Amino acid sequence: MERLTVDYGKKVKLEFAIYPAPNISTAVVEPYNSILTTHTTLEHTDCTFMVDNEAIYEICRRSLSVDRPSYASLNRLISQVVSSVTTSLRFDGALNVDLNEFQTNLVPYPRIHFPLSSYAPIISADRAFHEQFSVNEITFACFEPANQMVKCDPRNGKYMACCLLYRGDVMPKDVNAAIAQIKTRKSVQFVDWCPTGFKVGLNSQAPVIVPGGDSAKVQRAVCMLSNTTAIAEAWVRLDRKFDLMYAKRAFVHWYVGEGMEEGEFSEAREDLASLEKDYEEVGADSVENEDY
């Protein structure tokens, strides 16, 4: 990432960051790796779409009826989000969203660049035969924690920006009606210094699924990218796991043996604590303004 910053300083750099989960863990030191990676890439990426393996794992079990999701199951679900984000690069649409626009519309401050991803509908093939999802239903579903790619509750935070990327058989008037309804919901709160504007992308290309996969083919789908203060819950959870190990300096010798310095751990942890505080302050500004 540093090399990209040096060689392509003017280019917008988007990242998909996948964070670990205890249910499907491959290494004990995953909390270390996650914190160290976040710290080193923080200043080299313009927008980072977070994906939490724990949230994906639960979606596979609950919505796709997969008892023991494999990495293939998780990756297929993540690929739908990546596909939606890059649809406008590959197909012409009624309302395309350029990749540069994600940074412009979702990142109010340079460090606050971790949008939350949601996707709907996520259903298994056997349910798809007797269920049709309207634009209204899939839009509302994106605001439900059950369809989010990171375990956090947006009802505990405030939205700073929101981008809805629709695919398939979707009419603009239906989108406008759905957004108008969303704005009236008490559970969807925006910070007061940012208007409740929704960036919308429309593409007539229907979602494609992997043949023989867990997901059903649907007529329409939506991917929501939202910058919310609630994402800080994910940092708190990750920092706690890091702290438990680092308090005992467990496994640190392996990293030192590879040429790292122990101080890099403390530096990375402090940077994440600062990031937590940044999100807290963004939310607090809004609360203070409401009091006046």
Automatic annotation (TrEMBL):
Keywords from the named record: GTP-binding, Hydrolase, Microtubule, Nucleotide-binding
Q: Which top-rank group of organisms is this from?
A: Eukaryota
Q: Where is the Tubulin/FtsZ 2-layer sandwich domain?
A: 95-240
InterPro entries according to UniProt: Alpha_tubulin, Tub_FtsZ_C, Tubulin, Tubulin/FtsZ-like_C, Tubulin/FtsZ_2-layer-sand-dom, Tubulin/FtsZ_GTPase_sf, Tubulin_C, Tubulin_FtsZ_GTPase
GO biological process terms, alphabetically, are: microtubule-based process
Q: Which reaction does it catalyse?
A: GTP + H2O = GDP + phosphate + H(+)
Q: Which family does it belong to?
A: Belongs to the tubulin family.
- What is the protein's name according to its record? Tubulin alpha-A chain
What organism is this sequence from? Answer: Fasciola gigantica
